[in-house]
């Protein structure tokens, strides 16, 4: 969450821990993430936003209320103007759910903007000029690929393959190959430490702990980067394919601009080791990673708050 004049004030995972017995919220954000896979039976950790859209309306509303209060120093009578980045292929119903959740969390005005467009703004691309910029925003639930020119989206595509899907692929690989069951947090740690999209200069290994499905006892295993790269093959291929399709659909004049400027990667998924090299090899175009890939979208939405004319122009109707 970005507050005008203050910058990023909240940076936490969208997870809520709920007590099933009384329906009370036990924890939100980082505190709730630490509970993932470690809670007693009556407490459940929920991710109310799946694949970039709302999966649980009530819990999303409560989560937004919590974060808005936290962003404003727990002041109760706050009714902020809110700008929210959403995936480009969000449906009308999903869009309505996001707007309603924000209004019920006491927003005074709500604007939705395409995630890829604000990621490009946050990454410092010259989006207002009449020249082509290609941005690939790899978040948790979705990968948004867009070609932007003259403050507008010329082409955009959203695929529901991103960070969460990579974690799931690692979990499934270890389950099928070694009968080892690991949790989401362990899978994410593996992806961050030894995950890659293209062979590394120096091999990496990691010791992981999980439960042996056959014997039912805890087990420790050492795995290497080559194996995790294999597990991530399909996810990486889906992202590369989305980029290829975008390049095929781009008007020729803008294609020329992209071949000069290249592709910029944003989002947490952009930090997967050697992903830029893999995309460079597959497309033959220059590829660079945004200076602060994790914060590109929120920095872009923050800039929109200060430039109200631009916001009105690019907000989704």
Strand content bin: 15-25%
Quaternary structure: single chain
**Assigned CATH class of the largest domain:** Alpha Beta
Q: What is the number of beta strands?
A: 17
The H/E string reads: EEEEHEEEHEHEHEEEHEHEEHHHEHEHH
- Rg calc: 20 Å
Tell me the number of helical segments per DSSP (H or I, 4 or more residues long): 12
Q: How many structural domains in the coordinates?
A: 3
Q: Per the principal axes of the C-alpha atoms, what is the gross shape?
A: flat
Helix and strand content put the structural class at alpha+beta
State the main characteristics:
17 strands; alpha+beta; 317 residues; 5-stranded mixed sheet; 3 domains; Nucleotidyltransferase, domain 5; 12 helices
A few lines on this structure:
The protein is an alpha+beta fold and 317 residues long. The protein has helices at residues 30-33, 57-71, 92-104, 115-122, 163-178, 184-194, 225-231, 233-249, 252-261, 275-283, 296-306, 308-314; strands at 2-3, 7-8, 16-19, 25-28, 43-46, 49-50, 53-54, 81-86, 109-114, 133-138, 143-149, 152-159, 180-181, 205-212, 218-224, 263-266, 287-289.
